[in-house]
Amino acid sequence: MKHAEDYQVVLSDEGVPVFVLPYTRVRPENPILLYDGGRHATLFRNDHDVLLIDYIPAKAAEAMNKCGRLIVLEHNKAGDDVLRDYQVLIKKVKNNPLTDGLPK
């Protein structure tokens, strides 16, 4: 599992969370985010690429608890161009074993 050390999250005009992440060559296939309602989540871009997203801001967490999907934008190294965008299903779980034990 990789760790999202450099990401941003904003809310769209419709209140949908938009995560801005560095570009990866791995193509998303049925991406899903496991989310237990706390400050951490696990993004599965596909079956073999998993990304831990730590310390989600409170407003984004609130929106994620209301939404069924979020948007991911992947940017180039300079951060001035979006190379890929896709929707991610938010799968709400009672406990996320991949984030249990992380500081709340």
Report on this structure.
This protein has one helix spanning 58-66, and strands at 2-3, 8-11, 17-22, 32-35, 41-46, 49-53, 69-75, 82-92. It is mainly β and 104 residues long. An eight-stranded mixed sheet has the order 1-6-5-4-8-7-3-2. A hairpin with a 5-residue loop joins strand 2 and strand 3. The mean pLDDT is 92.
Overall mean confidence score, pLDDT: 92
Low-confidence stretches: none
Residue share in β-strands: 35-45%
Alpha-beta content class: mainly beta
Biggest pleated-sheet summary? 8 strands, mixed
Number of helices: 1
What is this structure, in a nutshell?
With 104 residues, this protein is mainly beta.
Break the fold down into its secondary structure elements and pairings.
Blueprint: E1 2-3, E2 8-11, E3 17-22, E4 32-35, E5 41-46, E6 49-53, H1 58-66, E7 69-75, E8 82-92
Features:
eight-stranded mixed sheet; 8 strands; globular
